[in-house]
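Ticket closed. Logging final result for rRNA methyltransferase.
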Amino acid sequence: MRATLPRRTLRCKVPLMRGYFAIGVEGVSKAFNVGNLVRSSHAFGASFAFTIDARLDKRQLRVSDTSDASSHLPVYHYPDVASLELPQGCALVGVELLDESIELPSFRHPLRAAYVLGPERGSLSPALVERCDFVVKIPTRFCINVGVAGALVMYDRMISLGRFAERPVRAGGPVEARKEHVHGEQLYRTPKS
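Final structure:
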């Protein structure tokens, strides 16, 4: 028997995307920033969240997670960069304002990715930047809040990999509904001899 969900929940459903993603933060010291990030990651459909070298009180973290997202989403805590473990094939994407960073609107998101942000008053450590497969930056004039930056990265991933109706040329919403996926005929592959 299927449970009935409130209408609000049904309308706000995150579209299914291929692949998976996670989001984390290095050297964070404010529990409410982690709580905000975990709540946003749950809302955007992340597979897990993580911290690296977090300098925060775990009790405060429970209080800051106002939606109890950590009950529905694994949150891993790593003591340092060397301890960070990601699934095989998962690209590590740093989010940092560096000259050589790729601007987020021009970035093609990997299907399997873990995004990592720096601390509130600092940058990603050189060891973590070295470990990243890609480093992206949000094109802003100055640094923004960790939770806001994480939400922007997840939103960009959702609109670039999700299935949405095309944007219209004029201002406003789409004129046509999103096109349904069409499955092709079954392909039979034979080994080359």
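Residues 1-12 have pLDDT under 50 and may be disordered. No further action required.
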